[in-house]
Amino acid sequence: MRLRILSREDNSLEIAFGGEGHTLLNLLQNLLLKQKGVKMAGYSKPHPLMDRSILFVNTDGDKPPEVALIEAAEEGKRLLKEFLEEFEKAARQVRRQDA
Q: Considering the entire predicted model, what is its pTM?
């Protein structure tokens, strides 16, 4: 993954994600929109053949957009870890039933 800040103003951030598409950006967008203080979060993939997506974050000023993005990424990590634990637990149960 390659990250590049394209634009940074008082309460807004525009960052390019190289090598990432809808999967990660959609997750980050949804987690950002659930945060208090985030006014807008969205992303675009300028062209299907381009290997980059652009994430936009705008906050109300209570927290910088970088902090909001870090918090969203940490929440995503927590949710994915929780999913993985539950999936592994369910897979073990299936294996026991098949044995």
A: 0.87
